[in-house]
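Quick one:
INPUT:
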């Protein structure tokens, strides 16, 4: 049994797809890919979901590889995983595998135990999903080897249920109330660092204007990173100061293997005069100077010399930009593009709170849903507004305590 790896590719029709292939031969493996196709892809799940499922199956395969478990033989002979093996699988699913190839080297550079113990653990949520996919896959796989006219062996379902029983429990209470918006000091520092001529700007001169505009658009519009990278120049109406956010899944003319996607609904956003001017200045200035950029319709392009120069900016380049910003200051260590979306929602709540006459909560929710691209009535908008209400309640409580203390001091 050889190790596997995930191979992503783009079909002629533009659909992104991922397969599990033998690392040595490059040949796709049968059972896992049949599961990915029939149970994931045919369920109309996104490529991101398909890729995630593939990574979870890869963990199961690696567990079987090091434990010398032949799943096909075991399932055909009804020798299902026993409790000790399921416990080991639970522990194995908690590890990250960034340095897996160090152990796969011949001879291995480290023992498996040394390698795994040196790795950070995944979150409970990730381990939970890994074990869920593993249980569902083994249940599906086992059923492929049994006569469907006969009664299904009870041990198969028992094994799947035992694996799910080992999933970590996490309460997840009050997650909707966690305020992930940037603090005032984080926001001020971020906007200062990205200034093109700023002394603390960590980027090369060739990408400073582009990166600054990317951060500003996320901060001012509250859009996701995928939505940002999906913007085409023709989506911007410079005469009417509007921007279209459009879903473009499986776009044939998008060369990116990991295509940035718009997860929410299509919508039109209005832009301020100064933001439109910033975009216009970038398009006619720095972007125009990039070789081959004229051949690309996407707004943000790669500036680095090489075969991808002038092509649409990739997700990895976007993540690298944020990683560079995080490393530029301890205060920015936890700042991400998605947190700017939370900051936008906080500022939106503050703006609504100042409106005269007051805007009803139902109307606020509808407005927020439209601007964020959420399905009306989904409750997502209300969750963001709830955080703002909690902050106001905390402030009111502190004011009440201070006034009570002041009255006590006056009495004394």
């Amino acid at each position: 049994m050889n190790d596997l790896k995930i191979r992503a590719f783009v079909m002629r029709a533009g659909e992104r797809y991922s397969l599990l292939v033998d690392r040595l031969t490059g040949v796709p493996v049968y059972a896992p890919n049949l599961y990915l196709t029939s149970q994931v892809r045919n369920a109309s799940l996104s490529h991101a979901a398909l890729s995630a499922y593939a990574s979870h199956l890869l963990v199961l395969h690696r567990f079987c590889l090091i434990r010398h478990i032949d799943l096909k033989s075991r399932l055909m002979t009804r020798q299902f995983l026993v409790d000790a093996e399921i416990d080991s699988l639970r522990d194995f699913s908690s590890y990250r595998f960034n340095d897996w190839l160090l152990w796969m080297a011949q001879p291995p550079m480290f023992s498996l135990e040394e390698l795994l113990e040196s790795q950070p653990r995944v979150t409970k949520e990730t381990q939970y999903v890994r074990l869920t996919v593993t249980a569902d896959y083994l249940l599906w796989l086992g059923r492929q080897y049994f006569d469907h006219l006969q009664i299904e062996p009870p041990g198969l379902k028992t094994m799947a249920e035992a694996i799910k029983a080992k999933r970590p429990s996490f309460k997840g209470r009050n997650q909707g109330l966690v305020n992930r918006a940037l603090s005032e000091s984080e926001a001020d520092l971020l906007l200062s660092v990205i200034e093109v001529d700023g002394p603390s700007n960590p980027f090369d001169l060739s990408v400073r204007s582009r990166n600054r505009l990317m951060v500003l658009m996320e901060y001012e519009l509250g859009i996701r990173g995928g939505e940002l990278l999906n913007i085409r120049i023709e989506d911007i109406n410079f005469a009417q100061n509007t921007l279209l956010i459009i879903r473009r899944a499986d776009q044939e003319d998008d060369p990116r293997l990991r295509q940035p996607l718009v997860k929410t609904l299509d919508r039109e956003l209005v832009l301020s005069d100064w933001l439109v001017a910033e975009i216009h200045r970038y398009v006619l200035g720095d972007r125009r100077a990039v070789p081959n950029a004229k051949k690309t319709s996407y707004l943000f392009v790669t500036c680095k010399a090489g075969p991808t120069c002038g092509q649409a900016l990739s997700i990895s380049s976007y993540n690298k930009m944020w990683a560079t910003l995080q490393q530029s200051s301890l205060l920015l260590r936890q700042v991400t593009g998605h947190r700017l979306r939370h900051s936008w929602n906080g500022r939106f709540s503050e703006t609504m709170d100042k409106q005269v006459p007051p805007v009803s909560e139902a109307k606020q929710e509808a407005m927020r849903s439209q601007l964020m691209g959420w399905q009306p009535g989904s409750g997502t908008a209300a969750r963001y507004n709830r955080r703002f209400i909690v902050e106001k309640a905390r402030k009111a409580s502190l004011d009440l305590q201070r006034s009570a203390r002041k009255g006590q001091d006056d009495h004394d």
